[in-house]
Structure formats: C-alpha cells, structure tokens
Automatic annotation (TrEMBL):
<dbReference type="InterPro" id="IPR050261">
    <property type="entry name" value="FrsA_esterase"/>
</dbReference>
<keyword id="KW-0378">Hydrolase</keyword>
<comment type="similarity">
    <text>Belongs to the AB hydrolase superfamily.</text>
</comment>
<dbReference type="InterPro" id="IPR001375">
    <property type="entry name" value="Peptidase_S9_cat"/>
</dbReference>
<feature type="domain" description="Peptidase S9 prolyl oligopeptidase catalytic">
    <location>
        <begin position="143"/>
        <end position="345"/>
    </location>
</feature>
<keyword id="KW-0732">Signal</keyword>
<dbReference type="Pfam" id="PF00326">
    <property type="entry name" value="Peptidase_S9"/>
</dbReference>
<feature type="signal peptide">
    <location>
        <begin position="1"/>
        <end position="23"/>
    </location>
</feature>
<feature type="compositionally biased region" description="Low complexity">
    <location>
        <begin position="41"/>
        <end position="61"/>
    </location>
</feature>
<dbReference type="InterPro" id="IPR029058">
    <property type="entry name" value="AB_hydrolase_fold"/>
</dbReference>
<protein>
    <submittedName>
        <fullName>Alpha/beta fold hydrolase</fullName>
    </submittedName>
</protein>
<feature type="region of interest" description="Disordered">
    <location>
        <begin position="27"/>
        <end position="61"/>
    </location>
</feature>
<dbReference type="GO" id="GO:0016787">
    <property type="term" value="F:hydrolase activity"/>
</dbReference>
Length: 346
C-alpha cells in the first residue's frame, strides 16, 4: 500500500505499511529489552547498479520527505507502575523513534492477552506545563477497561522525551514521526500482552491533525483511526487561527524559513495531508461537535470531503451541540468510537 515496506524482527509478517502544522489551544489540559529496530520506508532508493533515475528532490520539511524516510521505532520499555486498578495497570514508558527517546504512559489490561493496541495522540498543551500522559485521561481509562493496550505518546519536547529544537519552526512534523515510532515499537516489542498485528490510532484536536498526516505518510501501519475534534488539515489555517492573532513569534520564523503561502504555495501544499488524500488506505472516523468554537466544524467537513472525493473510507459525525472537549455526549461518542475499533481491530 502506498509503496510502504515494513521491516524488523516483529514486522516480518506485517502488512505494508506530520503532525499538524500549528498549535491548537484545545488540548484537554486535564489530567523490555530491545529486540532490534522496526522500520518502515515509503520509497526505496535505487540500487547502485540500477539505471532508474533518482527520485526528484523534495523539501526536507514536507510530508513527501517523511514518506521517503525510513522510520524506526523500537525499545519499548516499561518503567514505574503509576497505578493499578481492577481492570488495568498503568506504566510509565519510553520508546525510540527515529533516534529520539519519547516518553509516555501505557495501560495494560488485566487478563490473558494478546490485546489489540491503540496509540493516542493528544491535543496541544504548552510543553512547559505538560506532564506525562496529559491530554486524554478519560479515553485512556475507558479504552483500557475495554480490553485495549493504550500507549499515549508524550511527543518530543514534552515530559521526559528528548528535545528537538527545530520542531516548532518545522511545523511540528516531528510529532508524526513520534506516532509512527510508537506503532513500530508496539509491533517490535515482543511483549505477550500486545498484539502487534492489531493497532489503531486515536487523536484529538492537534492530535487529530497528527492522525491525518500519519495516515498519508505511513499507509498500512495502522488498521483504523479516529480523529476527534481535529484541527485544520491546511497548516496555514491553523497558523492564522491560533498563532497569528496571539502574536506568536514562531510565525515570523516559520515564514522567514519557508515563505508565506503566497510566496511559496508549493511548500504549503507539501505540508497538507489533503494534497496526498489518495494515499489513505485505512478507515477513518472523524467526530466533531457542532458547537466547537476552538476548531471549527468546517475544517472537518473539508477534510472528510477531500478524502471521500478520493474514494476513501472516511466518515464524519457532526455531534449536535457539543463543544471542543465534548461533555454530555462524550460517553455516547465513545460508544461509537469503540464500535468502530471493534469492527476493524477485533
């Protein structure tokens, strides 16, 4: 699918196989030994004896650059036990993603595995105040109680993860690498509790943008995905909506390095997943409240329309009266989310 190829000790039998451009202010704000690297590469370089022409150069800060990169994810390590419930045990974890150590939390259900796994991609929370596992606590708890291994990634520059000083000016594409690395680390973990052949992706707000980008960069890596109240799939819209009105100085740095959409439209096309809608191979569910005043519903309508026009299995559920974080309808929409994952991961 999409030219992807999985490699690694735990990936030999697997199928073929970034992050959003800007901050969304609507994050929840609440509350083994390494067996060798697993990798995925979207485009193989020609062999030295091949007469095929070399691939055309691409901007290193772009989704095509991530598509060509050989991504690695390995070394999933369980650290301290953070909590024990009747349904699951919660651990501090780390894993390696493209040479960086990324922290997170993992909930492992009680009982006999292997269990299907879900990678959770949280919304924007200022890294200066973020703590490990913050952003989707309700989802972490409920999904583990429903029999899923839940790996919530902290992303680079968050909590105990390694620093990437260029990540903001490079439109936070590194977050997509961290999510891809999480899936590869799950596949490569060798842990008996984890079914590495059944992995889903669930992101909210900024993490919903990470979902979009991950699906077009690494088609076939996940089995299904849910985007919950996602940001725009057009990076310039996120900048104009969230950062420019606040006078965020990173906007000037971004435009000095990459140009404005008017100065370099090709660059901005290259960082939007909608440009590569034809690469999507997995079913995608988008859930968005009609009263969301943080991320407008129109953004999800545009994304769903573009993916559907490309013939992809994408459903948009507009949830009447719900805001950005969902309230009265949260449990009902989680029923829908679980039913969706049940169809595709069980």
């Amino acid at each position: 699918m999409g030219g992807m190829r999985l490699r690694g000790t735990a990936c030999a039998a697997a199928g073929l196989l970034l992050a959003v451009a800007t901050a969304c202010t609507g994050g929840d704000g609440g509350s083994t030994p390494e067996t060798g690297p697993a990798t995925t590469r979207a485009a193989e370089a020609p062999s030295p004896r091949s007469s095929s022409p070399s691939p055309a150069p691409v901007d290193p800060v772009s989704l095509p650059a991530l598509m060509r990169r050989e991504h690695t994810g390995s070394g999933l390590r369980l650290g301290d036990v953070l909590d024990r419930t009747s349904a699951y045990t919660r651990y501090a974890v780390t894993y390696e993603a493209n040479g960086l150590t990324v922290s997170g939390i993992m909930n492992i259900p009680v009982g006999k595995g292997p269990f299907p796994a879900l990678v959770l991609a949280h919304g924007y929370i200022d890294p200066d105040v973020y703590f490990s596992g913050q952003g989707m606590p309700r989802e972490q708890d409920r999904l583990a109680r429903s029999g899923y291994v839940v790996l919530h990634t902290d992303y680079r520059n968050h909590a105990r993860s390694d620093d990437d000083p260029d990540n903001d000016v490079n439109l936070r594409l590194g977050y997509t690498e961290d999510v891809i690395g999480a899936a590869l680390a799950l596949r490569d973990s060798g842990r008996p509790e984890i079914d590495g052949d059944r992995i889903g992706l669930f992101g909210r707000s900024m993490g919903g943008g990470v979902v979009y980008n991950t699906l077009v960069v690494a088609p076939g890596l996940f089995d299904a995905a849910v985007a919950y109240a996602p940001v725009s799939a057009l990076p310039q819209e996120n900048i104009d909506h969230f950062q420019r009105p606040d006078g965020d100085p990173i906007v000037t740095e971004i435009e000095e390095k990459h140009g404005t959409p008017e100065e370099d439209p090709e660059f901005w096309r290259g960082v939007s997943p909608l440009t590569y809608a034809d690469r999507l191979t997995e079913p995608l569910l988008i859930q968005h409240g009609t009263a969301d005043d943080t991320c407008p519903l129109a953004w999800s309508r545009e994304a769903a329309r573009t993916f559907q026009k490309a013939g992809k299995d994408v459903e948009l559920r507009a949830v009447a009266g719900e805001g950005h974080t969902f309230g009265p309808r949260w449990a009902a929409e989680m029923d829908v989310t679980e039913a969706f994952f049940e169809r595709h991961l069980r």
